[in-house]
Write a structure and sequence with these properties.
2 copies of one chain form a homodimer.
Chain A: H1 3-18, H2 25-32, H3 39-42, H4 46-66, H5 73-86, H6 88-94, H7 105-121, H8 125-143, H9 146-151, H10 156-173
The structure holds a DNA duplex (30 and 30 nucleotides).
Domain HTH tetR-type (chains A, B): 1-61
Keywords (chains A, B): DNA-binding, Transcription, Transcription regulation
Protein name (chains A, B): TetR/AcrR family transcriptional regulator
DNA sequence: CCCATCGGCTTGACACTGTCAAGCGGACGG
DNA sequence: CCGTCCGCTTGACAGTGTCAAGCCGATGGG
């Protein structure tokens, strides 16, 4: 309804289509049907717009985790991987502090809120961090095609399946 | 000596100072003391320049791994983490296919050559991939400050130490 | 020895970007 | 009914990547 929402929606669309680097404020404004300087009225600068989108992304990730019937570490890890591979551009943006206002309180709150779910599922912190790093790395390597190249898989669906399988293998191999 | 080498060196310097997004072909040309369009003569476009730098990065990573006395999975993982945290901007660029010519044969060769060292150290492929994803995720989370935020560590050296410790904890916990 | 050719580099231009300053216009309160 | 905001537009600026044309010196042939 409001111009701000239109701009956010347009930016989300541009993000899906062109990736975070392909987002131009002017293209977003054009898509939202406003003048090229309208975004300045709602977001201090480009980074502020991206930060708002990233914060939304963390909220969606948290919501996806909350939808789980049993929030075990294994289930959370699968949800994390699914989220990352379903919204690759959004996930990319969320973990790109150099392009965001990384100290924005709303962004930090949304991010910490998401990660707290991982923490709640493991009894010790080092297990939390190791598991987080594992699923995070899997998402990135799968998204960038590195996993598929090593394992000789072409279709994205196959790579996603491989990533999920590796996460399962990890939970089986890890001790206590 | 040659203009091409000067451009690559200037780009490396710009990369360290401003990150991959802050690299401007014109600034690189200025730094190398040539005209703003000189890069076009040696690199088809901006992505081609970045691709050449990324390929160099993979060669350096491979060299660091070859310097290891005993190329065990644990030692390779530490070397991977050290490389990523010592050259954060370079590492960032290397795994950013959207900004590179991802199908460039030289880049692919250099990349595969690096990763083959990980593969040689594990007896089964899924262990290779899991370990790779783990150290890769650790580098990214540590570099972006996410690890430090969770563990309440401010200094980069402390975060690097934490990442190394987590990698060690992983190798201890993982089964065969 | 001179001249022609050719490749590496420069110069100039274009469309596009993010950002800023000024100004318009309609809604809202006195 | 009038004045004052506030949201948005218009216009400008410096900076970007890329392309086209032209210069200029080294290289090779006559």
């Amino acid at each position: 309804m409001g111009v701000r929402e239109d701009l956010l929606a347009a930016a989300r669309a541009e993000l899906e289509e062109h990736g975070h680097a392909g987002i131009s404020l002017r293209a977003v404004a054009r898509r939202a049907g406003v003048s090229h300087a309208a975004p300045k009225h709602h977001f201090d600068d480009r980074a502020a717009l991206l930060t708002a989108i990233a914060a939304d992304g963390f909220a969606e990730l948290a919501a996806a985790m909350d939808r789980l019937p049993e929030p075990t570490l294994a289930a959370l890890g699968r949800a994390y991987i699914d989220f990352g591979l379903t919204h690759p551009a959004l996930f990319d943006l969320m973990f790109r502090p150099s392009e965001l206002h990384a100290d924005d309180p709303e962004l930090l709150a949304a991010s910490n809120n998401s990660i707290s779910r991982l923490r709640a599922a493991a009894d010790d912190q080092s297990l939390t961090l190791i598991s987080w790093a594992l699923v995070h790395g899997l998402v990135i390597l799968a998204r960038d095609g590195a996993l598929g190249r090593i394992a000789d898989i072409a279709e994205p669906a196959g790579v996603a399946e491989l990533a999920r399988g590796l996460a399962d293998a990890y939970t089986e191999r890890i001790q206590s």
